[in-house]
From TrEMBL, chain A:
GO molecular function: thiazole synthase activity
UniProt protein name: Thiazole synthase
Domain Thiazole synthase ThiG: 5-253
Pfam family, one: ThiG
Record's GO cellular component terms: cytoplasm
Description of how the protein assembles with itself and partners: Homotetramer. Forms heterodimers with either ThiH or ThiS.
InterPro entries (UniProt xref): Aldolase_TIM, Thiazole_synthase_ThiG, ThiG
Pathway assignment: Cofactor biosynthesis; thiamine diphosphate biosynthesis
EC numbers for this chain: 2.8.1.10
Family the UniProt entry places it in: Belongs to the ThiG family.
Classification of source organism: Bacteria, Pseudomonadati, Pseudomonadota, Betaproteobacteria, Rhodocyclales
UniProtKB/TrEMBL annotation, chain B:
CDD domains: Ubl_ThiS
InterPro entries for the chain: Beta-grasp_dom_sf, Mopterin_synth/thiamin_S_b, Thi_S, ThiS/MoaD-like
Database matches in PANTHER family: SULFUR CARRIER PROTEIN THIS
SUPFAM superfamilies: MoaD/ThiS
Taxonomic classification: Bacteria, Pseudomonadati, Pseudomonadota, Betaproteobacteria, Rhodocyclales
Protein name (database record): Thiamine biosynthesis protein ThiS
Length: 260, 67
């Protein structure tokens, strides 16, 4: 019950991490280990024909035998390109159907193109993919993605790579309260308290990359994020006290004071 | 001569090639890659039997760091 279940598979960690923007594969691996993440995103790109083919491969540092690899469609601006990319990813990962769909709409803000995202999701679900989908924090379109058959819906907290945190917690609450699949905040988290807030709202998990990779000490930030996620989840399950806007309520007894 | 467009660039090969032969010539044997030919995936199980034709458009991809 306290595990995150996506497409029938249970995960202990509710933190999902990316592999971009690190100094090298050793740092990538060290940060992922410190984060405790089990689901790790990768991008799919053309090989550099003619360059040294013996260069190390990301999947040697992050082996699919140890991690659930989540190939993404970052950089795709049409449903067709995203679908093509994920067909290649599935071939690359020996038929592994779990994927992260993102269809972007604008190169400056990386906001998702929702009509293309919905179109790609329909095709991918029909082809047997288990689609985790990056999307706008629009409760209606999030529900549409769930109804198409996506296995997790992943609204942005703020712009990709911005570190601006949770800019619209009320939309996230609407999405969470109305969802039957895991809701995972994807993008925008800047520091551990942002991850905690997302989890306190009732999100099932958080996916992040830049907040860890671009911290001054990525490995330490990965550890902080792990704790932030766990703290937020426990606080959500514990149920926070009611807010009292107009009156204080002492924590210590009001009787038995000396001199009374 | 066999002209192939690989990852957007035209390259010439001296003789007939299968996908397996191409992967070998590019130094990718044993590497974790995926191949698309003219818009269709070529599954690993068919690399050895898929004969390439002049003008084929190929995409060869790998996993890289990303979020």
């Amino acid at each position: 019950m306290h595990q995150l279940t996506i497409a029938g598979k249970a995960y202990r960690s509710r933190l999902l991490v990316g592999t971009g923007k690190y100094k090298d594969f050793a740092e990538t691996r060290a940060a992922i280990d410190a984060s405790g993440a089990e689901i790790v995103t990768v991008a799919i790109r053309r090989t550099n024909i003619g360059q040294d083919a013996s260069q190390p491969n990301l999947l040697d540092a992050i082996p699919p035998s140890q991690f659930t690899i989540l190939p993404n469609t970052a950089g795709c601006y049409t449903a067709d390109d995203a679908v093509r990319t994920l067909r290649l990813a599935r071939e690359l990962l020996d038929g592994h159907p779990l994927c992260k769909l993102e269809v972007l709409g604008d190169p400056t803000n990386l906001f998702p193109n929702m009509p293309e995202t919905l179109k790609a999701a329909e095709t991918l679900v029909k082809e047997g993919f288990q689609v985790m989908v990056y999307c706008a924090d629009d409760p209606i379109q999030c529900k549409m993605l769930e109804e198409i058959g996506c296995v997790a819906v992943m609204p942005l907290a703020s712009l990709i790579g911005s570190g601006m945190g949770i800019v619209n917690p009320w939309n996230l609450r609407l999405i969470i309260d109305n969802a039957k699949v895991p809701i995972i905040v994807d993008a925008g988290v800047g520091t551990a308290s942002d991850a905690t807030i997302a989890m306190e709202l009732g999100c099932d998990g958080v996916l992040m990359n830049t907040a860890i990779a671009h911290a001054k000490n990525p490995v330490l930030m990965a550890s902080a994020m792990k704790k932030g996620i766990e703290a937020g989840r426990e606080a959500f399950l514990a149920g926070r006290m009611a807010r009292k806007y107009y009156s204080a309520d002492p924590s210590s007894p009001t009787s038995g004071l000396i001199g009374s | 001569m066999l002209d192939l467009k690989i990852n957007g660039e035209v390259r010439q090969f001296p003789a007939a090639l299968t996908v397996t032969g191409l992967i070998d010539q590019l130094g990718y044997t044993g590497k974790r890659i995926a191949v698309e030919r003219n818009g269709e995936i070529v599954p690993k199980s068919q690399h050895a039997t898929t004969q390439l034709a002049a003008g084929d458009q190929l995409e060869i991809v790998v996993a890289v760091g990303g979020g």
